[in-house]
């Protein structure tokens, strides 16, 4: 009877276990949809590697688009957008930032949006890309904003897709959290917690089987042999996000800026650390996106009422059609 029960249990558990991939600290074992190149450079006294995608269109239109991923994303998660933009003539460069995905994960590094922007500039100089548009999603929206502020002569158009950082969370009452606490919390990351969060934030309570690929991409690094360095880099970037707001500088943007916002998004870093009666005041995207658009001298705000934090994945056709209609040609 025991052996029969064991066989039955294994029949149900083996398929689940088979999907629980363990990836290395630089996403070794997870295949990207495009060829990955690596840019070696020195930063803060150490040699680092930045993984990146550089996809050329079959029929170039002379335009380049730099895609900046969010905190829980990678260059690979831009897959659909890369395919769409290259089909429409754009050269697309999509890096994995230092500390993320297939790029180096240093054990000592001062993470700042200024530094990540500088790293990105070094990559673009290496690729001889002088003028370009930049699109940032989630945390990538904060980085794209900082990059545009630092490089107004190079960035032709700024596009932000549900960027975080449209509000100053510490100023709104989110308590400061020590790095050690962020680290311990990151070590608990698993597929179930990622999926639960993404369903309710990224996809407005809906779920499609194709989303699981991106859950496994992230969860696999936290199951693998280098999960400690992955968690530490995650902690460092959480601290960067909370302590380096860009919301006060949107008024200084000099280029045309397009905001594409899924209004069902409610992302706010540290929301769960605040008192429950204050949480509803954070991550109100219909409100804060309009407030930010009003600050930017040349802004176009387009909202998707039924979509969440990742409209480019949740409703790719609708999102990409809206995107291409609002991209400037230079």
From TrEMBL:
Which GO molecular function entries does the Swiss-Prot or TrEMBL record give?
Answer: monoacylglycerol lipase activity
Stretches assigned to the AB hydrolase-1 domain: 64-270
Entry's Gene Ontology BP terms: acylglycerol catabolic process
What is one cellular component GO term in this UniProt entry? membrane
Alphabetically sorted, this entry's keywords are: Hydrolase
Q: Does the keyword Hydrolase apply?
A: yes
**One Pfam family from the record:** Abhydrolase_1
The answer to whether keyword Hydrolase applies is: yes
Which domain of life, per UniProt? Bacteria
Q: What is this protein called?
A: 2-hydroxy-6-oxo-6-phenylhexa-2,4-dienoate hydrolase
Species the sequence originates in? Methylophaga nitratireducenticrescens
State the taxonomy lineage: Bacteria, Pseudomonadati, Pseudomonadota, Gammaproteobacteria, Thiotrichales
């Amino acid at each position: 009877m025991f052996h029969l029960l064991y066989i039955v249990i294994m029949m149900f558990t083996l398929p689940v276990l088979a999907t629980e991939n363990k990836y290395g600290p630089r996403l070794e074992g997870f295949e990207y949809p495009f060829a990955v190149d690596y840019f070696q450079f020195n930063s803060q006294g150490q040699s680092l590697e930045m993984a990146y995608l550089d996809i050329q269109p079959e029929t170039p239109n002379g335009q380049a688009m730099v895609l900046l991923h969010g905190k829980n994303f990678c260059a690979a998660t831009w897959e659909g957008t890369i395919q769409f933009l290259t089909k429409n003539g754009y050269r697309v460069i999509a890096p994995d930032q230092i500390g993320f995905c297939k790029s180096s994960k240093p054990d000592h590094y001062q993470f700042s949006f200024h530094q990540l922007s500088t790293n990105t500039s070094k990559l673009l100089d290496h690729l001889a890309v002088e003028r370009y548009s930049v699109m940032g999603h989630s945390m990538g929206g904060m980085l794209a904003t900082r990059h545009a502020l630092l490089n107004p002569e190079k960035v032709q158009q700024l596009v932000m897709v549900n960027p975080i950082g449209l509000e100053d969370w510490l100023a709104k009452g989110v308590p400061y959290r020590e790095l050690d606490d962020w680290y311990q919390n990151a070590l608990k990351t698993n597929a179930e917690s990622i999926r639960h969060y993404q369903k309710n934030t990224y996809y407005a309570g809906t779920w499609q089987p194709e989303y699981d690929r991106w859950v496994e991409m992230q969860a696999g690094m936290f199951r693998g042999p280098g999960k400690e360095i992955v968690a530490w880099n995650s902690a460092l970037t959480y601290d960067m996000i909370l302590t380096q707001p860009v919301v006060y500088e949107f008024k200084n943007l000099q280029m045309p800026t397009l905001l594409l916002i899924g209004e069902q998004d409610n992302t706010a870093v540290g929301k769960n650390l605040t008192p429950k009666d204050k949480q509803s005041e954070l991550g109100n995207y219909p409100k804060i996106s309009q407030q930010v658009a009003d600050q930017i001298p040349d802004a176009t705000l387009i909202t998707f009422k039924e979509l969440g934090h990742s409209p480019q994945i949740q409703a790719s056709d609708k999102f990409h059609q809206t995107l291409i209609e609002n991209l400037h040609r230079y």
